[in-house]
């Protein structure tokens, strides 16, 4: 009996190799074949996905922050736990591909009263059984179980890719939050210097007013300029503190025992990365790979929905020994077995199977649209970063020259005021314009650095801690 049962299960496994899921074809890439940018790849350019984030960021404090965040960030921890959840669900589903064998031992005693027996005397019966049982094993002739297993596997792989995407995003977000805090620190320092300078000018103006050397209008203008500088300094102090709070949340623990921070002007981030073609993003970006695995899962679910229209055949069997005496379980002639195949053919389901098939097809269409959208978003992120990379250096240089010009303007205005050629209004206006130009220059430098981080992330960089040794990209 065991041999016959084993052969039956093996034959069922062979016959159940077919699947009713549609043949998967990867959708066409809904973006241009090339990026519209004037920049070209350097001869020694490296793929972002192969470059470790330690090689990209030279600030030791930033490296320590990223390393700590990868351990303590709660969002990344949840993403890792989602992988364990999906793996467990896949293991549960894959168990249906194999028969479930159980060891069974039962014992029963029953007394039948005399009024219910033909012999007019009470009867006590005993029944003892020991053996193996096969509980309702489905013969997957139409691939229903196999399709569900494929869907569970694709869901698990999608979750794994989603965790990689969260890893990459966390690296870039920590870097951008740190750079923003450094920019606020530099702007706050500029605001503090400006406030101190204007406070000194205001005190001098007050003394001049007290001796009648200047008007009340000049005094109030100096006072207003001083208070505006104080407002700017307080605003930047608040923004810096909030940036620190955001960075602490990303890191997942208080920011203590860290290397000293470098100023924003000392930060350098490589931008000479290998860009490649838009189609390369399909392999470089884990969020796109996650969306494709979701699409594969939806495609497999269609196979399970189609198989529901066909008969389901299951086997229930058992083999062992049975006796009316406990001592006779393993005696000669006590062998017992059972074999109960079952066929269930859907006849009337009230439209349930048709609605379920329509549902799976709609979900596949949604997955296709989501997959295509993920490609379009990735393409735009890379294209935006490339455009900014080509123009930000020129913008910073222009802003630097504008700041230098404002410094010279302030010197000339102050000289003219000291010589009585022009009024203090020219000096005050030059001070305002210089302070604004200095803040804008810091903001432009921050934009260049954050754009470099965005380019690295959008090309799939950030998953590796150290650079992977590979041949130069071509």
Automatic annotation (TrEMBL):
Residue ranges the record marks as coiled coil: none
PROSITE patterns: PROKAR_LIPOPROTEIN
Top-level taxonomic group: Bacteria
Listed Pfam families: OEP
GO molecular function: efflux transmembrane transporter activity
Membrane topology: Lipid-anchor
InterPro entries: MdtP/NodT-like (IPR010131), OMP_efflux (IPR003423)
A GO cellular-component term linked to this record: plasma membrane
Locations listed in the record: Cell membrane
UniProt signal peptide: 1-21
Protein keywords: Lipoprotein, Membrane, Palmitate, Signal, Transmembrane, Transmembrane beta strand
NCBIfam families: outer_NodT
Family the entry assigns: Belongs to the outer membrane factor (OMF) (TC 1.B.17) family.
The protein's name in its UniProt record: Multidrug efflux system outer membrane protein
Source organism per UniProt: Herminiimonas fonticola
